[in-house]
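Troubleshooting: if your tokenizer reports a length mismatch, compare your output against this known-good record of 474 residues.
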Amino acid sequence: MSAMEKLCLGIELGSTRIKAVAVDGQHTPVSSGDYIWASSYENGIWTYSLDEVWKGLKTALSGVEGRENICAMGVSAMMHGYLAFDKDWNLLTPFRTWQNTVTGQAAAELTALFGFNIPQRWSIAHLYQAILNEEPHVPQIAHITTLAGYIHYKLTGVNAVGVGEASGMFPIDSAARGMDAIAKAVLEPGDEAIVFDPVDFLFKTSMEAAGAKIVLFPMKLREDGTIDFSDLEQYITPKTKMLGLCNPHNPIGVQWDRDTMAELAAICRAAGMVVVSDEIHGDLMLHGRKHIPFLSCGEDARAVGIMLGAPSKTFNIPGLVSSWMVVKNEELREPYYKWLEANEFNAPVLFSTIGAEAAYNNGEAWLDQMLRYVESNLEFVDEYIAKHIPGLRIVRPQASFLVWLDFRSLHLCQREIMDLLLDKAHLALNDGSMFGRQGEGFARLNIGTPRCVLAHALDSLRAAVCGVCLQNCN
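Known-good structure output:
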């Protein structure tokens, strides 16, 4: 690196590490530094100290060489959560991270009010919950922001966040918006909708927001990986109007086979039901497997199916809030398009369209490299758990970067599992129960992360499990 070469600096404040990386004009990393940290549980809240934020930043930046040549920088951090400040930017209450699940009442009320799924981790849910709780700091609030927004303000004096950050604070738009819109276009209050148990919670919240009664269908996997639909018709009534399909399935990671989906389509067509197939993980097939779109599974599927997808998971660009939809049946498509037009959802943001097109046209090489890395991480997790944490079992996914961890052999209740993960291992995995009743005894692990972070997480998990069970760990 020459003394005059200009550098760009990237800073990331993750849940376990703060990292600073300088890259040159060819986007090649030239130096970096990091700082390992963890959230703390104080007075019923998961938090990070802002003093440690700055300590960690200084430590990470100390490893970056040529700082005087930095000409541009970007900051990313854990999304969501709650940072509330007064007019002079004094912190009013400890930082509430995305790990907290204390905003259930607020999230439910806001979801009904906006007709848009509001997760508990979103900033608006934390703010409204504080209002509901009549917390004394609320009258003093002048600003709320995210961790990245706070760092950006302190470094630049500009109080602003990007659209990706903003979409985790307040309803803007998302790939999940398609699910919300379809539910509102198809369902009437009092209708029933069938949701698999377990499955991504967005199915349930979107359909409930449309006024539907949710009917949970317990998934029963056969030994060959197919699903047993033999008693599905027992869950269907004259009020049943919709079924939600996640293909590939989240959180289990299974790619439904063609015969299974054709069987499901025939049942739903006979009952006059619409099938909403969320295929957002379809581009993330592992180990050479091929995705099978629901609409490719015969005439019945094309008659009842609405297929959803997005580049956000595939290319890690959720901030573009871009998604797409395919409806083959014109009779089904026409009233839905009219609903989109009436509610002004038929004109996508130009930047999102251009970004999605660029990703799909030019991102294949990157996607292939990413999938090979995720596959190697999956093998690492599988081998590590089998060798060092035999009390756990993983459900090997056929697609995506999400791994379903089975804790049932530890004979712990779900609260004890989450206490083990959060309090002892200091890991914020997704609680299995958020995906349905059959998620009890499970947690979801994201392996789309650097190997060093994954190894550190598994070491922490190993120590925590060995500390609470009588089973020997190697």
